[in-house]
Amino acid sequence: MTLTIEIPDDQVNALQARAASAGLSPEAWLKALAAPALAAREETAYSIVPLQKSDPESWARQFDVWVDSHRRDIPVLSDEAMSRSLAHRAWADPAFLRARVVGR
What we know:
By secondary structure, this protein is mostly helical. About 60% of the residues lie in helices and about 0% in strands. Helix 1 crosses helix 2 (about 25-40) and helix 5 (about 85-90) packs across helix 6 (about 95-100).
C-alpha cells in the first residue's frame, strides 16, 4: 500500500536528517517509527525483548529512532530537582514547590 502525507518543507528536511542519522531512508525511518505502535496489542504491553534477541541490528535502529524522537531543547533537571528530599518537601508543603517552580 502507498500512503501519501503532506508535510511542510521544514519538517521534510528534519525527517530526512533524522533518517540519515539513523542510516535509513525516510520511508524506512517512518516504518520503524510506526511499527511498534502498530504491532502493540491493546490487551498486552508491547515488548521489544524478542526483537532484541532475534534481530539486534533492527532493535538498535529502532532504539536510535526513539532516542532521536525526543526534544533536545528541554533543559535537564538539576540534581537538587531530582532529589528525593525535594519531592518529600513538595508533598508535605505544596506552597514550597510553587515557590521553587514559579519563583514566588
